[in-house]
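Q: How would the C-alpha cells look for this protein?
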Amino acid sequence: MESVKLMNRIDTKFCIHKKHLPFLLNSISDYYYYALEIDKSQLTPYKTIYFDTKNRDSYKAHHNEKLNRIKLRRRIYLKTNTSFFEIKKKTNKGRTIKHSILTEV
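A: Here is the predicted structure in C-alpha cell form.
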C-alpha cells in the first residue's frame, strides 16, 4: 500500500445495507484490490478538524456538490499518532487531488 498514496483519484461512494456486504465482497473476489491493515486491524480511527469561513462556505460547497472546491483539514490518525494538514481539491471532472503535510500531533 505504500506505493498507493491515493493523492490523485476519482472517488465513487455507494451506500448499501450491511446484510449485502458478504455478497458484494464475494462478487469482487476475482478482482485485484488491497485492504489497508495497520497492526492487524483494518479499522483506522482518526480525528479531523475542518477549516472553513465564518459563513461555512466550504461546508456548503461540499453539501451542494459544487465542483472546483477546496477543503482544508487537519487529520490525526490515532493508532499511529501521526497528524497531517491536508488540502483537498475536487475538480470539475470529479477528480480529487490531495496534498498532505506531516505536522506535529
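The CA atoms of residues 19 and 73 lie 33 Å apart.

The mean pLDDT is 88.

Upvote if useful.
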